[in-house]
Amino acid sequence: MQLVPPWLEKLLGTAFFSVCRTHGAAARSECNMYCLDCNTDAFCFYCRSSRHKDHQVIQIRRSSYHDVVRVSEVEHLLNIGGVQTYVINSARVMFLNERPQPKSGKAVSHVCEICGRSLLDALRFCSLGCKVVGIKRNGNTSFMLEDISSSTTRMISSSSTRRGEDELREGSQQDIYPPTPPSTSSTRRRKGIPHRAPFGS
Q1: pLDDT-wise least confident of 2-16, 25-39, 62-76, 172-186
Q2: Are the beta carbons of 39 and 56 closer than 8 angstroms?
Q3: Which terminal CB of the chain, N or C, has fewer other CB atoms within 10 Å?
């Protein structure tokens, strides 16, 4: 069983944000795209339109001089469980590779198993690259989506069952306790027919 997709390690070792040799004079000439079908080098926006139009392409972005990818672009391709994510510019992202972090001496609750970087949540890895190393070192996790499908199915099934039971209970209560008719005590009664005052002589 293949625990790491063949294109992922190539992606993690690719240099992004260089100027495209073909479209260097254009405004959007930085090479921040990667094609999963071709699995070669990074390319720019214009190369995508001309050479990778119908291919599966993901866009790499930058945060604090480090490469990140949006979760929404890879979660249908990889099991990203155990990797720390961050919200940057209203989008949830994860880092491609580990980031060196000087030791501060402060006690932290959660750290990356591979590089020791502090994490926000109780997770195992700070980046996709560290998860690759963890898979090769321990083999107790993977990027294959099949690994999470069964647990996800169980969660959905359990949720559906609970929802059905709740709806059944609500329906039973409605049958046992019919709605109370509105009270007539507070209903306004129409006043008598108004009479016009007689004209004075």
Answers
A1: 172-186
A2: no
A3: C
